[in-house]
Fold these 2 entries.
Entry 1:
Amino acid sequence: MRRRPPALPTTPIVPGPGQESVWDYPRPPRVERGDEHVVVRFGGQVVAETHDAVRVLETSHPPVYYLPRTAFAEGVVAEASGSSVCEFKGTAGYLDLQVGDVVARRAAYYYPDPWSGYEELGGRVAVYPGAMDSCEIDGERVLPQEGGFYGGWITSRVVGPFKGAPGTLGW
């Protein structure tokens, strides 16, 4: 007897031309290289800029962008307390970002020793867009994923609905 796949917890938005649905992203997540121009602003200045970001794409989540640690301005990133475990990527460490007297605590995370299949995340940092002044992809300002745990970057390129808001934890 064949089992039916579980029903989606919500109705996905149909993507338009040039858009992606997060409901078409895989689980386990996929790491994908890009060449978009990524800019992160914090404390009134550009703290990171690169054309060498990777996206992690996971069902129901907006993409998370990981930037090379070397893309961050010197002295902006500092180790923070705590860790968490992703069932796919491994144990994440947290980072504070600081510009002068302005500090965003645990505003970024990284995988110091990513698990098999996610090695490309080594040496890269993901920031929570909601903790920054702004994050941009190819000049478009990113909206942060709702909730306090996930670090997804929402642009006009992706449609949801997105996991993260109250009531979506089980998605």
Entry 2:
Amino acid sequence: MVNRLLCVLSGAAAVAACATYHPAPLAPVEIARVYQNRSLEAVAVSAEVKRIAPAAEWNVEAWDRLSLFAAALHSSPSIGEARAHAASAEAAVRAARAGPAMTLTLTAEYAGKAPESSPWLYGVTNDIPLDLGARRSSRINAAQFAAVAARYDYAEAVWTARMAIRRALAERFLTMREVSIAEELAQVRARQLMALERRVVGGEAVRSELERVRAEAAGDNRRLADAQARLIAASLSLAEVIGVPLSALDRANLTWDGFDAPASPQDRDVMALRETALLSRADILRSVAAYDQAESELRGEIARQWPEVHVGPGYTWERGLVKLPFSVGLALPSFDLNRGAIGAVEARRAEAGIHLEAVIARAQAAIDGALVERAAARDALARVRDVDLQTAKRVADQADQELASGAIDRVDWSATQAGLRLAELAEVDALRRLHAADAALEDALRRPLEGPELQIAPPQAKGDQR
């Protein structure tokens, strides 16, 4: 009676410990509706800024790169997806530690006309795999390396979002300026065309000159239209990476201190960061983790050349007699002694090693190329500002004086004003090239080189687990 009670209680405890299924259906229509109603939540973003940069002082009325990055951490779908993948990989590590399940077999037998006191036989046997040695350690290590790789994927997703914000915000400011200058240029071209048409009618100019200016005006209008389209595209990209609809940015005051004159870090600092980047870039560390994972899987496949041991303790009640059988089972390897699987994993390990070398080589090439391009972009911007733009301003100022004195008419004056606007557009192009070069260098080094993101505290200092 006591034994039966213990069996009932143990069975009830086992059932109570089981997890239960909780459905979690998703409604795509509702997800889309919630996304369309999102906004830049100043309270949540302020808390995120304080979490990642405790020393930062953020004015909620002005959205700079740091606050936009914090907003992306809070609501970006790509970052949320990478974070969920990292959490899933961590759960897989816990599952890997549990090991394979044992099997339980219940038997019953009835013997007709049995000479014993009872015709029944009852039995229970277990099949318990011995989860020991390299089989267990390689399985757990492979899951741990996969979790490490997932964390590096998360870090790479965060960095990718940061760079997307930087590039989209820079393009937004540049195209806004380009649109403004192009609109002024269109007005100047219109005046130039009107004055030149009067010259042609009066016989003071040939029609070919009018057609030339008209073609230049058409090219300027195309550039204006292209700039307006790029402005919309930059705004859409910025909204997408943050995880809010475009309308949420329309109400935000976006700022970038020092946009016209990006800070230039010292070359010695860049070279020190170069050495650090080759040892700490998330994509490089992720490739190292992938190689270690392949190494662990290889150890596991080599261990599977040997038989897997199972033990089978049991209990049998045979027509009044109690028996305690015990068996040892061997799960034999495949006929090729697992050589096929070992060869496949060795090939994957070799592939992972070559991939690591390729990632390091690409990182070095990216840093070298970014350094060269940044120097060239700075020289080009300085040349445009010091020579082309200054010359165009002097010519335009002189034309203003000559127009006031009657020395030139509106056609010649408009030509100098158009030249000034074209020089200003050239400055925008040179500034765009410089921002692109700075972004490429930061992306290659995986470090912000200037701006409010320098206030972000290292994850180790904050204990950041997100």
